[in-house]
Specification:
mainly beta; 2 domains; 13 strands; single chain
Length: 144
């Protein structure tokens, strides 16, 4: 699938430890409520699409479009389980393993995306009618 083009209400659960943060949106980037959000190399938020150097920061809870002044922020949440579209490579055999973003609304197995472009978003918890419950967790391959 392509990236989301409108806000969507995601089913969520296990919200007891949900965390939030606001991120500056990339210039002219439209981020829709319910999508997976990453930061690019300049720390600007955008909808997740496998790309080198991006890191997952959460699920957008609002719809925002970035401006050139860098004054628009989008609120994201993590430490929550959310229901996302599971691509065909993702089966119940992968429960308990990390999944990666294929688009800002699709998740798949680690091996389905080239290693340089993998954006880990969290643990695959359960398959439900072809969709995946994912425990959204922020990951980083970098050490400061």
């Amino acid at each position: 699938m392509a990236n989301q083009t409108a806000a969507v209400t995601r089913k969520t659960r296990n919200r007891g430890n949900v965390m939030y943060a606001d991120y500056v949106v990339k210039t002219s980037e439209a981020i829709y409520a319910g999508v997976l959000v990453t930061l690019n190399a300049t720390n600007r938020a955008l909808g997740a699409t496998p790309s080198s150097g991006e890191r997952f920061v959460g699920m957008a809870v609002e719809t925002k479009t970035g401006n050139s002044g860098g004054t628009v922020t989008v609120r994201c949440e993590w430490n929550v389980e959310a229901l996302y579209n599971a691509l065909t490579a993702l089966t119940s055999a992968y429960i308990g393993k990390d999944v990666v973003a294929s688009t800002d609304q699709d998740v798949t197995t680690n091996s389905a995306i080239s290693s340089a472009k993998r954006i880990r978003i969290g643990e695959f918890v359960q398959l439900e009618s072809g969709d995946a419950w994912v425990a959204l967790r922020r990951h980083s391959d970098a050490v400061v």
